[in-house]
Amino acid sequence: MPVLELKNVKKFYKMPGGGRFEALHGVSAKFNAGEMVAIVGESGSGKSTLMNTIGGLDSDFEGEILYEGKNLRDFSTKEMVNYHKKSIGFIFQNFNLIPHLDLIDNVSIAMTLSNVGEDFRRQRAKDLLKQVGLEEHMYKKPDQLSGGQKQRVAIARALVNDPDVIIADEPTGALDAETTDVILDMIRDIAVEGKLVLMVTHSEKVAAHCSRVLRIDRGQIVDDHEQKPIEHQQIDRENIVVHNMSLWKAIKLAFKNMKAKFGRNALVATGMGIGIMSVILMLSLGKGVTSYVSGQMNTYSNPLVAEIQKTSSQKMQQKKMQDVQKGDSAALAKQQQENMNSLSGTSATNSFSSKDLRKLKRIKHVKKLQKGYTAISLGTNQISYKKKRATLIYLKTVNDAIAKSEIKHGRLPKAGKDEVMIDNGTAETLGKHMIGKTIKAHLQLGTKTIDKKVKVVGTYEQAGNSGSMSTILLPYSDLKQLFKDNGLTLKPNVVYLTSSEQKYTEAIKTKAKDLGFAGSMQEQMTQMFDSILSVLTYVLTAIAAVSLVVSAIMILVVLNISVVERTQEIGVMKALGARRKDIRRIFSSEAFLIGLGSGIVGVLLTWLLSLAINHYTISAFKAAVVTLTPQYALTGVVVSVVISMIAGILPSNHASKLDPVDALRKE
Ligand SMILES: Nc1ncnc2c1ncn2[C@@H]1O[C@H](COP(=O)(O)OP(=O)(O)OP(=O)(O)O)[C@@H](O)[C@H]1O
Question: What GO molecular function annotations does the UniProt record carry, in alphabetical order (predicted)?
Answer without folding.
Answer: ATP binding; ATP hydrolysis activity; transmembrane transporter activity
